[in-house]
Amino acid sequence: MPAAPAVDAAPLTPSAVSRRRRRRGWTWTIVTVAVLAVYLFPVYWMISASLQPQANSADTAWFPASPGLGGYQMALDDAGIGGLRVSILVSLGSVLVTLLVAIPAAYALSRLRSRAVSIALILLLLAQMIPSVVLATSFYAMFNSWGLLNTFIGLILANSTAGVPFAVIVMRAFMLRLDTEVIEAATVDGLGPLGTLWRIVVPLSRNAIVTAGVFAFLFSWGDLLFGLTLVNRNEMYPISVLILALSNSNLNTWAATMAASLIASVPALVVILAAQRHVKAGLTAGSGR
């Protein structure tokens, strides 16, 4: 006796498809909100702790019952203005040095066609793999003989070592996508290598340059090791070192530590928000090669 033919499942109606899509959308929304809450919880904890002047790391409440700004006052008195000034000057100086070195290096590596380019890129990657403590020890001996300890120049040069390799790699990836005909036309019009770089390549590579500058700023802004190793004068300590000193203090400074951490995050947040459009475009374009 022949088997009965299989019955096909009834096709979904448009309303059923719409309901399924809505359920899937709500599921992804809930998952996204949960992940975002996990990532933002440390920020909330810092805000809550900074508003509890009498609390310490062991008995900080989830919600401040009687919030106060004493922690912010102590943070500004002990670690605020001076540390922020040092960190801002060092970070901006590191950005300047990084771009002055990385822009021509990236352009040269994007134009050359030889095995030496691959070797140079490998060396740049290896430079990023060197432990910071090794660099800090070497810099201390070198800067001590040069008289650059406790100076802005010393901190700027040390922090630039993290930004230059990254900036060269990012900007080279972007410059490889530039139209060679435009660059050749500039050469035909009489522009030399430096003129072509400054008048043609730099404007066209604006997004990549901003991206490299933002990351160089963040590398320098978050530095702790160089600030501890190359500086031993209170007025030259960056904000990261002063926050560490607050957290290690015997005084009840937990609220001040959290307040100083929030204050220190404001300049970095401003830089990221101001440059996010360029950073997104620079990273996206650089990944397409």
Automatic annotation (TrEMBL):
> Is Cell membrane included in the keywords of this UniProt record?
yes
Q: Where is the ABC transmembrane type-1 domain?
A: 84-275
> Per UniProt, what is the membrane topology?
Multi-pass membrane protein
User: Record keywords: Cytoplasm included?
Assistant: no
Provide one Gene Ontology biological process annotation.
Answer: transmembrane transport
Q: Which Pfam families match?
A: BPD_transp_1 (PF00528)
Query: Major location, coarse class?
Result: membrane
Offer a single GO CC term for the protein: plasma membrane
Output the InterPro entries linked to this UniProt entry.
Answer: BP-dep_ABC_trans_perm, MetI-like, MetI-like_sf
What family does the database annotate?
Belongs to the binding-protein-dependent transport system permease family.
Q: What is this protein called?
A: ABC transporter permease
User: Which source organism does the UniProt entry give?
Assistant: Microbacterium testaceum
Lineage of producing organism: Bacteria, Bacillati, Actinomycetota, Actinomycetes, Micrococcales
